Amino acid sequence: MKKIIFLLVLTALVYKAGAQEKQIQIETQNSALILKAGKNGLLYQTYLGAKLNGNSGYDALSKENTKSFVINDGNPLNNLRHLAYPTYGTDNLFESAIRVTHNDGNPSLELTYVNHRVDKIDDNTTETIIKLKDQVYPVEVTLHYKAFYNENIVEQWTEIVHHEKKPIMLYNYASSMLHFDADRYWLTQFHGDWAKEARMLETELTSGTKVIDSKLGVRTNMYQTPVFFLSLNSKAEENSGEIVAGTIAWSGNFKLAFELDNKNSLRISSGINPFASEYSLEPGKVFTTPSFIYTFSNKGKGQASRNLHKWAGKYGIKDGEKPRLTLLNNWETTFFNFDEKKLTEMFADTKTLGVDMFLLDDGWFGNKYPRSGDKSGLGDWQATKTKLPNGIGFLIQEAEKTGVKFGIWIEPEMVNPKSELYEKHPDWVLKLPNRPESYYRSQLVLDLSNPKVQDFVFKTVDDIMQTNSGVAFFKWDCNRMMTNAYSAYLKNQQSHLFIEYTNGLYKVLDRIKTKYPNLPMMLCAGGGGRTDYALLKYFTEFWASDNTDPFNRVFIQWGYSQFFPAFSICNHVTSWGNQSIKFKTDVAMMGKLGFDINVKELKPNELKYCQDAVANYKRLNPVIWHGDMYRIVSPYDESRAVLMYVDNAKSKAVLFSYTLHPLYDPQYNLVRLQGLDPNKSYKVEEINLMPEAKKTLEESGESYTGDYLMNVGLRVSSSKVETSVVLEITQI
Ligand code: DGJ
């Protein structure tokens, strides 16, 4: 022990004598994160905010009394404020980014700056890599910051490695720690449950720690979406104010902690939830945290969302720049009750509607235990012979003959105890020894930490692809959380389960993406139970909610639109809710449009409306999917929602106005449009009308300057309950 103390003192001194201050600038077009290795060797965050002109501003940050870089203020412990990656065990009094116990039982870590480099990845992207290490124990931590210049996004993650003789125990392993100094802080979280996902709730942070996390193991976003807005000094506004929008790209348990301290400084840590997940790290093995992705905007939430949407299109979501498939799904029309005849008739309906693809949902598989309800069959991925005697291949051929593509539903991480898979491999299931099995929707979770189970899940997709050429799309579902979870494979390392399950899932998805790079897939988890940017690397889109009532849906889609682009949010027109087909379709068109209705039950004028709406959607989807989104009237503020998309050239725009549940005869104000070019002239036309219906917008067909539309505006909203108006705005 004496030797260690001596070494500590010596190395600290040596380091101090030799150390130079080093400033590290991580910049995008409009934002900057500045780090500085102090003379004491510790790495601090000195600034996070709008980019400053030139370097002189950043140099001034190093002055010792700068508010955001408090050192030497009389209290030695303040040396540890704003550490870029605070450790536990020495003199840190607040949330730590990392906590380890060494081989000798010593529970402390102190990280000092070693070096850094900046790699240019391409003209838009740089990666700053900063190496830190403990001066006493052979533990190294590398901080990675990838800056996407045009999109104003920073992606941050951490690698931890050690060279002790035996494993060290990791108790905390954050992806990031960011610091803020404002007078007040408001946090917007996105929470909910099945059928009420992504509800926005803004509260002022008070002293102490607020945690947004998940302990569900899988389908982890059922109650909390892993995203937040932090607004500095005042409540978040759509078009003004300093905002940080952050999200953790991890599909297992996650944790976002917001700690407001005695000096009114805020630190935000993000990462895997270390709850019940201490990790024994082998010597030489690198522990890589997931990415924390954030953007800073001083133009409010709207700009932050647009930054994220642009980034997601280019980098965040699989095939973000490629077109999506419109579709007809059979789930709400048939549930489990279908046969070949019903399905082939629905192919014709798909064609009649004008959408691209038919999507066959749950209920097509299982022979010994057919999937005639949700109690059996999961795990047995062969078509049920009694229902589909000619198999999936025949269905694909029939769909192709009708001129539509064919997609298929799977839930490959799960198993019903009533299945051949369970009978053959009871040890592939997560379940506690000495306790009863714990069911949810009559199913159990497969143990994806086990490589054999990973092979099985990969093979589920591979077999469907290999035996049935022409499958154009997968909907990958996940309908339960983990309970009573224990992995027979992990034996005495049960605290690795939540992490290894998630890594196992990524391994499977990596294999699928490598073998089938052009296969679009929808991420679904009993509604919006999985909405994170780690899985979206493998999926082209996600199912936002099983709640398809268009009134509720406006709020759900509004919530997701804050962090995810329109092309990734799947919205289907269904029979849920008794609103008009126009209202339902107009609401679904705000994102990625699909249908899940019995087309045969549509009246002729409804069908004609749908066909026109689909044609309009196909014409306008480049604007909706890849344009800039402007949220103009929030359903949280008024009894209506108004938003618009504008293409990059500002030559085309689409506006959606949804009237919700106003009091009698609401006197809605004119709506000032946004994002147009003031010097251009635009024709405004109301589209998506029921045949023979009167237009709501009296000025439909008129032309205006962008200046007029943005400063005077139009009366775009109908006053009737649950009605909608869609405007196409075209430069003339
Ligand atoms: C839950 C999904 O959210 C639904 O869309 C549907 O696919 C069912 N599962 C099928 O079991």
Automatic annotation (TrEMBL):
Has keyword Signal?
A: yes
Q: Which InterPro entries match?
A: Aldolase_TIM, Alpga-gal_N_sf, Alpha-glycosidase_related, GH, Glyco_hydro_27/36_CS, Glyco_hydro_36, Glyco_hydro_36_C, Glyco_hydro_36_N
What Gene3D superfamilies does this protein's entry cite? Answer: Aldolase class I, alpha-galactosidase from lactobacil brevis, Golgi alpha-mannosidase II
Q: Which residues cross the membrane?
A: none
Reaction(s) this enzyme catalyzes, per UniProt: Hydrolysis of terminal, non-reducing alpha-D-galactose residues in alpha-D-galactosides, including galactose oligosaccharides, galactomannans and galactolipids
Q: Which residues form the Glycosyl hydrolase family 36 C-terminal domain?
A: 641-720
Decide whether keyword Lyase is in the record: no
Residues annotated as domain Glycosyl hydrolase family 36 N-terminal:
41-282
Provide the leader sequence positions.
Answer: 1-19
One Pfam family, short name please? Glyco_hydro_36N
Alphabetical UniProt keywords: Glycosidase, Hydrolase, Signal
Q: Which family does it belong to?
A: Belongs to the glycosyl hydrolase.
Protein name, UniProt field: Alpha-galactosidase
Q: Which organism is it from?
A: Flavobacterium plurextorum
- Mind giving the lineage of the organism this protein is from? Bacteria, Pseudomonadati, Bacteroidota, Flavobacteriia, Flavobacteriales
